[in-house]
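alpha-1,2-Mannosidase (Oncorhynchus mykiss), 637 aa
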Amino acid sequence: MNPPSRTDFVSLTLTGQGSGIYNNNKQWRRQSCWRKWKLLSRLQRNLILFTVALMLVCGIATNPSVTEHFRGLAVVAKEEGDHALKPAIHEVQPELDKLNRPLVPESPSEKQKRAAHKRGPPGLQNRLQKKGNVSDTQVEKEEGENWRVAMIDQATERRTAKEAANKVDVPEVEQEGHSHKEPEVDRLEAVRDAFRHAWKGYKEFAWGKDELRPMSKSYGEWFGLGLTLIDALDTMWILNLKKEFEEAKTWVSTELSFDKDVDVNLFESTIRILGGLLSTYHLTGDTLFLDKAKDIGTRLMPAFNTPSKIPYSDVNIGKGTAHPPRWTSDSTVAEVTSIQLEFRELSRLTQDTRYQAAVDEVMQKVHKLEGKQDGLVPMFINTNSGQFTHLGMFTLGARADSYYEYLLKQWIQGGKKETALLEDYLQALEGVKKNLLKKSSPNRLTFVGELSHGRFSPKMDHLVCFLPGTLALGAHHGLPAEHMELAKQLMETCYQMYAQMETGLSPEIVHFNMHEGSIGDVDVKLADRHNLLRPETVESLFYLYRFTKDRKYRDWGWEILQNFNKYTKVSTGGYTSINNVRDPEYPSPRDKMESFFLGETLKYFYLLFSDDPELLSLDKYVFNTEAHPLPIWPTAQ
Ligand code: DMJ
């Protein structure tokens, strides 16, 4: 064979074939390949090597588990504010230790279970698990003499007896040929354990800071106001965590100061801080919390000094100045219409009408605005003109959700007299039914999609899962029974958003399939696979259980709690948001415990499992959008 000429193309000659002898033994093939390789020019060899290397790199980079891994390492929570245009979170850069494999050390049996876990889209199934992750920690039994000063209508006095009734008998299981009965699981105690574990991390690594970063054993600051601690105050009271509550109260009385040159988001600080302080005041009767509530409420008032009286999104609580975000003069509709319960209550308690007047004016203006479609509101409103902007886009998810929730809840708070609120609520529900409500394929799950300039999108945020609870609450307060029917259907859908995921935890956003012949109901885009420990589904389960007493809602909640324990619990303390609910092998921790996990999620779990309907009776209290109970006004009853 003649050596190939040094041209810039690859030329291979198959010698064996030409001789008519077919030799295919390994040795021959190896030598023949090597000979051919040596016959190639340097350029040809380099070209081939480069192509192979390129293919390898592309292959690795497009492997989802690898990309998820890098995302997990690099992520700085993308856009987590639900309503805010863009909250600025200033993370304190911690010393990073092991960011890989965050979760509690697994037992060998758990490892086996995970190894056996099938990947790929599962069908509709109830993933109810039989055992809980209940630690041995015991409840503190002793009641302090004066601790429960003005307890919730003596409700908790009845709690202990009723809690005993909340033990769950777990079915017999076969193990290594022996049949034995699993111990009873006390679900309320499991929630307390989860709280204690979360609090342990917060106390050790983030005490007095806004948020725990459990993986790096550090903290993040947003407003610099001890957000998690304040958000969690009433949860500790309700869960009867006396020692933890007292420590937190001491911090509030000795360390918490709002006299600080910081920009805070009006909506977030109202629902979490003002709401948290007001509800803690109601539960404890301790005026420390009312004084603090009045202080922060007053410092937030400059937000309303705008040409339109539609508040700015940000306030400097030290300087008394307010402003919109740097890039727009818009606020989101949810932000400006979901601060009313708190400011109205502040006026009632302080007899200072300015707070209520400011937020009522916002509602009156929004009530009259052009740009709604069948009662549905756009997502943005301009603080100069007072008009909606970005017309034609409608969602019950981020940036609009709690507008609908607060229409109903203000109506309830004020004694069902403010008919404009009720009218807007009822009209909006008609708008939902007409424009946003569809069924998925193949299982005909009812879901709430979105509308953009007349075009329907089958996208549903997890945030929308507040809706079953709100619908049920409305039905309980005398609205049509069909609201309850819709609530039940949507509740099933929200549950399936968890059950159909490989970790049993819902992603942030799902897309429902609507075409015939779809294999599963739910699709999840890569960028939407995170779970931030959000409360909405558990919140709705609580309402649905309270009103129907159907135990399946409790069982669904129990299943979800166990999956939080399995995939988000960090062994050194705290729980973390995760990046990928579809990968039980590596859910990829985000290193952040949102304050609402303690303020809302765990509180709703506890209320779901409690047998006492008088523990925060829904005829006496209305929960703000951050799960802080505020009283329904007594004069109204
Ligand atoms: C909370 O801050 C509130 O529930 C708010 O209404 C929506 N977002 C978070 C929880 O997901």
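The longest strand covers residues 218-221. Confidence is low (pLDDT under 50) at residues 1-24, 64-80, 86-180. ok done for today
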